[in-house]
Design goal:
Belongs to the 'phage' integrase family. Pfam families: Arm-DNA-bind_3 (PF13356), Phage_int_M (PF22022), Phage_integrase (PF00589). Keywords: DNA integration, DNA recombination, DNA-binding. The structure is a single chain. With 430 residues, the chain is an alpha+beta fold. The chain folds into three domains: 72 residues, Integrase, DNA-binding domain (Double Stranded RNA Binding Domain), CATH 3.30.160; 106 residues, DNA polymerase, domain 1 (Orthogonal Bundle), CATH 1.10.150.130; 139 residues, no CATH class. The protein is built from 17 helices and seven strands. The protein has a four-stranded antiparallel sheet with strand order 1-2-3-4, covered by helices on one side. It has a three-stranded antiparallel sheet with strand order 5-6-7. A hairpin with a 2-residue loop joins strand 3 and strand 4. The radius of gyration is 27 Å and the shape is flat. The termini are far apart.
Length: 430
């Protein structure tokens, strides 16, 4: 039997000079360019896209070194991470730390530029932010959407400077530009508090009474939220969904029954569910609010999970809805694509939560706080939450059972509504 990994021999590589790609297996390759230079590469496929990550030159790393790095990258992929993105995040963190140390090591000679102080601000606050992606978003958004003020001293920036910097993205990327304006305001306030800006001074990035006269008012979405199937039509949609055999159909079925977010369903592992006690416990690190969320499973939800398990003994760390690649979850696009195939592409998966919320609010007597708990929303003020430490779990059992019972009814309006939507779509295409 031929080897699947560790195919290359160190001795052979020492004398190998012919340009080309030489595979060691498991995604590890040695590339020899026509110039004679040799470098290690790690290659994998994700969502049908080829990804390539350089591991360093042949002269700097031995074959054993490259194998260790490739093994580490494979482990990251098994855990659902992207090795390139994680490495970029680590490099950015190191760069920010290096800049901070350099700034602390030398006395301040002049007022810092906006970019220099923004990096210092980010480094000082990143410990309180939830994840590395948020840090990256701060740095990237300022460098991309506030280019016009990056090299200006913080004490010299004017409202017109800020307006000119934001104009290119103000209408095209309205939400992003609004966040960037707020971040600029925060950075400049911090610079003032640290003594880099002297009074009298008014923050040039402030909106009210300031930038509101220099920038057009942003257009806000009228509907504002994810397109949702009217709850009156959900029973017939659910019946049609149950007839589908694809794994994405079972994932969407569970998502609807439990009113969960897409990622909460797709990243679920078998260790999170207790089918005998009918409880699904999503750990805090996977929740939007970073608070553990327990879901009382209706009989219908348990039936979906048992059908997915197929009577097999599932490993605790396995994804409930695995993707086509080993150790990876079902694609984020699996459920939206399924809805398109059902001629319901105008609606969103996240909108199912709105359908649940509308039904519960309009057609049932369940308390608002219990419904909000079912959606894993924060309920009440911080003071209220400090005293209210339970999650209304027992009451939510009835909520989820009522929802499952309702979904298994039929609405005569659904077919007609679907036909009207399809006709409208055909007219638009024509």
């Amino acid at each position: 039997m031929s080897r699947t990994i560790h195919k290359l021999k160190a001795r052979r590589l020492e004398t190998l000079n012919t340009p080309g790609w030489y595979g060691d297996g498991g995604g590890l390759w040695l590339r020899i360019r026509p110039s004679g230079s040799k470098s290690w590469k790690f290659i994998w496929i994700r969502d049908k896209v080829r990804r390539e990550m350089g591991l360093g030159s042949y002269d700097a790393y031995t074959l054993d070194d490259a194998r260790e790095m490739a093994a580490a990258a494979r482990n990251l992929l098994k855990e659902g991470h992207d090795p390139i993105e994680l490495r970029q995040t680590e490099q950015e963190e190191e760069r920010v730390e290096r800049i901070r140390e350099e700034q602390e090591a030398r006395p301040s000679i002049r007022t810092p530029t906006f970019l220099a102080y923004a990096k210092k601000y980010i480094a000082a606050h990143e410990g309180g932010w939830s994840n590395a992606k948020h840090i990256w978003q701060w740095t990237n958004s300022l460098e991309k959407h506030a280019k016009g003020i990056l090299e200006i001293s913080v004490d010299k920036i004017t409202p017109q400077d800020v307006a000119d910097a934001l104009k290119p993205s103000w209408t095209t990327f309205a939400e992003t530009a609004a966040r960037v304006r707020g971040r600029i305001e925060n950075v400049l306030d911090a610079a003032k508090a640290e003594g880099h800006i002297q009074s009298p001074w008014e923050n040039p990035a402030k909106w009210k009474g300031n930038l509101q006269f220099l920038l057009p008012k942003r257009k806000r979405l009228v509907t504002g939220h994810h397109a949702a199937i009217p709850y009156e039509d959900m029973p017939e949609f659910f019946e049609a969904l149950q007839k589908r055999e694809a794994p994405a159909a079972r994932a969407l079925e569970l998502t609807v029954l439990c009113a969960t977010r897409t990622s909460e369903t797709l990243l679920a592992r078998w260790r999170e569910v207790d089918l005998d006690r009918r409880i699904w416990t999503i750990p805090a690190e996977r929740m939007k609010m970073r608070i553990e969320h327990r879901i009382p499973l209706s009989h219908a939800a348990v039936a979906v999970l048992r059908a997915v398990a197929g009577g097999k003994s599932c490993k605790p760390d396995d994804y409930i809805f695995p993707g086509q690649k080993p150790y990876s979850p079902l694609s984020q696009m699996a459920m939206p694509l399924l809805m398109r195939r059902m001629n319901l592409g105008q609606f969103t998966v996240h909108g199912m939560r709105s359908s649940f919320r509308d039904y519960m609010g309009d057609e049932t007597d369940h308390a608002e706080t219990v419904i909000e708990h079912a959606l894993a929303h924060q309920v009440g003020s911080s003071v209220t939450r400090a005293y209210r430490r339970k999650d209304a779990f027992e009451k939510r059992k009835t909520v989820m059972t009522d929802w499952a019972d309702y979904l298994q009814r039929r609405s005569p309006n659904f077919a007609a509504a679907g036909q009207q939507t399809r006709a409208a779509n055909l007219e638009e295409v024509a």
